[in-house]
Specification:
The structure holds two protein chains of two kinds.
Chain A: E1 7-20, E2 23-30, E3 41-44, E4 55-67, H1 70-79
Antiparallel strand pairs in A: 1-2, 1-4, 3-4
Chain B: H1 11-20, H2 26-34, E1 37-38, E2 43-45, H3 48-52, H4 60-72, H5 95-125, H6 129-155, E3 160-161, E4 169-173, H7 176-203, H8 216-236, H9 239-242, H10 244-266, H11 269-275, H12 279-294, E5 300-301, H13 309-329, H14 331-353, E6 358-359
Parallel strand pairs in B: 1-3, 2-4
Antiparallel strand pairs in B: 5-6
Helix pairs in contact in B: 4-8, 5-6, 5-11, 6-8, 7-8, 7-10, 7-12, 10-12, 10-13, 13-14
Classes of the chains: A mainly beta, B mainly alpha.
């Protein structure tokens, strides 16, 4: 990892989407043990994966992991905490509607 | 006659109902596509080694009891539609109320969904059995809640789109303690919010404009037990709540969360009016309950009866309206308006932050049962 340079790598992954009454969830699991670190970006390749209502879809895909530079990683680590409000739920979006 | 999939009581029935629908015409398909709502959960990483190092031995007896309760899954059968699910007149709903209520459903669904993603990630990356088991159970509940809300949205003609998975997502980072404070508070405040509405509607059933409110009690009991687990986690390391720095963080968290809730609730007047709830009364009621509950772990509660409390919350709300106006207006004048609004909001927040706290003796055993 360079101080200022990003690197890209690909990782095989399994994408699981459950669009069912009893469960709405979606997860990406890397099958080669790749680990995502602060500041990294992940993009699953290929067309949008859709699951019709009532379905659970599992697909093997490839993901591109763009590794953050060392500086970016440090920055994300240092400032991430301040985004803690993202973890809180308020029932409503912040948008002013009327 | 075919039933609508959202009226089905089981997943199988819902699928069958879905399949029995006639194919969509082009026009209908476009309309459906237009009301597609892209779920946009956030993605986080944390220090998984630090999380793995948690030792629940100091609270083992209470921990095991709580986990056993969650494993027994008393709410398993709850999130099903039954005869209590009244028909909703979406078309007849006052447009402003409809917009605010849909915002409520989408925001809640996204929150449950994001919680599920976060918990599942922790389960997957951790190796401490106690911790991964907890996160697995919480992910289960959140996915279930999200599915239930999703169905209510479908009934309103809104389909959630899970296409975010193929978009680039950046992972941000939180230290584990921030995840504990934030999720602990979020689960407990969620409980207080839901139970307050549930009790209010129990007394005023004519104000229940949607059946989902009938499910709030069991729903918030899940939130309550998730909060209990985080309370125990906070107990495993006294530093988390006792050092000077962490006490400041907790005060900051409480003030930020309470004031954000106040502002957001006041931005949904039609929703609260339909429920027959004054947002100010509701806010104070939720703060009171949350404060009472958080005495289980936090060494202080905010002084919500302080003479500066409500006036400054209202100032923050006004400033927020000003910021939104400025954004809508655009241009230099809009920018100036936004900056003034931001400065006013910041001043109000500072004023709230400097209200002295009420100190609290934390009990040895944090465990509580939902009592409201």
């Amino acid at each position: 990892m360079g101080l200022l340079t990003r690197t890209r790598e690909t990782a095989p992954c399994v994408v699981t989407i459950s669009h069912r009454f009893e469960e709405l969830s979606a997860h990406v699991k890397f099958t080669n043990g790749a680990v995502v670190n602060p500041g990294d970006t992940v993009q699953v390749q290929g067309p949008e994966i859709m699951a019709a209502f009532g379905e659970m879809v599992e697909e093997d895909r490839t993901a591109v992991i763009t590794r953050a530079s060392k500086l970016e990683q440090l920055w994300t680590r240092a400032t991430g905490d301040f985004e803690f409000m993202e973890l809180c739920e308020f029932s409503f979006s912040e948008e002013v509607m009327s | 006659m075919n039933i609508h999939s959202s009226e089905a009581t089981t997943a199988e029935e819902a699928i069958a109902a879905q399949e029995a629908l006639p194919p969509l015409t082009n026009e209908e398909a476009t309309q459906v596509a237009m009301s597609n709502t892209l779920l946009t959960p956030r993605f986080y990483t944390t220090d998984f080694d630090e999380m793995d190092a948690i030792n629940v031995e100091p609270v083992r007896a209470e921990w095991d009891k709580l986990i056993a309760g969650m494993k027994a899954d008393p709410n398993k059968g709850h999130f099903k539609k039954n005869e209590d699910w009244d028909e909703v007149d979406w078309d007849g709903m006052e447009p402003r109320l409809k917009a605010e209520f849909i915002d409520f459903l989408i925001s809640s669904c996204t929150a449950e969904f994001s919680g599920c993603v976060l918990y599942k990630e922790m389960k997957r990356r951790g190796s401490n059995k106690d911790i991964t088991e907890l996160f697995q159970l919480m992910a289960r509940d959140e996915a279930r809640h999200a599915g239930f809300i999703n169905d209510a949205l479908r009934e309103a003609g809104i389909a959630v789109n899970l296409g975010f998975l193929t978009q680039a997502k950046k992972y941000t980072y939180f230290r584990p303690k921030f995840i504990y404070y934030a999720t602990y508070l979020s689960e407990k405040i969620g409980y207080a919010r839901y139970i307050t509405i549930f009790r209010h509607l129990e007394a005023n059933p004519d104000k229940r404009f949607h059946p989902i409110f009938k499910w709030f009690r069991e729903w918030c009991n899940d939130e309550f037990s998730h909060g209990e687990a985080f309370a125990l986690l906070l107990k495993t390391d006294p530093d988390l709540t006792e050092t000077r720095m962490n006490k400041l963080w907790i005060k900051f968290f409480l003030t930020a969360v309470y004031s954000t809730m106040w502002v957001r609730d006041h931005q949904r007047p039609a929703f609260h009016e339909a429920l027959g709830v004054d947002p100010a009364w509701y806010g104070q009621e939720v703060f009171r309950k949350t404060s009472e509950i958080t005495r289980q772990v936090f060494p202080m509660v905010l002084d919500i009866d302080h003479p500066r409390w409500i006036p400054q919350l209202n100032k923050m709300q006004d400033a927020n309206v000003q910021i939104a106006d400025g954004r809508k207006q655009g241009g230099v004048a809009g920018w100036v308006k936004r900056m003034i609004g931001s400065a006013r909001a910041g001043m109000a927040f500072l004023s709230l932050l400097t209200i002295p706290v009420v100190h609290n003796e934390v009990p040895d055993s944090p465990r509580l049962e939902p009592a409201y």
